[in-house]
Amino acid sequence: MEEIGIDISEQYPKGLKTYMGKMGFNYSIIVCARAEKDCPKTFPGVGTRLVWVFDDPRGENVPEDKQLEKFRQIRDEIEQKILDWLEQPEAELARLKDDRERERRERLEAVRREAANRGASFVAASIASSTPTRYPARWAACAS
Predict the structure, then answer these.
(1) All residues at 6 or more sequence positions from 109 whose CB lies less than 8 Å from its CB, including other chains
(2) Do residues 49 and 28 lie in contact, with contact meaning Cβ atoms separated by under 8 Å?
(3) For the ranges 30-34, 71-75, 137-141, the one whose mean pLDDT is highest
(4) Are residues 52 and 81 in contact, defined by beta-carbon separation less than 8 angstroms?
(5) What is the 3-state secondary structure (H, E, C) of 79-105?
(6) How many angstroms separate the CA atoms of 97 and 95, rounded?
(7) Which pLDDT score, from 0 to 100, does residue 57 have?
(8) pLDDT tens digits, residue range 105-118?
């Protein structure tokens, strides 16, 4: 960061607990896959949560001698993403809204499928248990 004129020598990673209850944020921006996977999806005092996952500069597939260059690449990608977002925040928010709506529809469809499967199993079990003995055994097998 010093290469581009930003002094972060006094900075260190801080969890949201450092800020919870002390201040609110309009946005929380997740930039790494591990945080997206492991961190809570909602935080008190945070308005909108954005997820911009970037490659890990220290990732398994990055040789040690290429890590500095990878850090520079990711730093520049993050800067560009922020600049693009600041230029047109409504585009990112519209995409976020669309993603959330798609996820909501997928959850609803999964619930419907599960309910239909439970209903089909219940009906099949009811039919099988009420199949009169005068019917051939193969009919009972078809009902289950």
Answers:
(1) none
(2) yes
(3) 71-75
(4) yes
(5) HHHHHHHHHCHHHHHHHHHHHHHHHHH
(6) 5
(7) 87
(8) 999 999 888 888 87
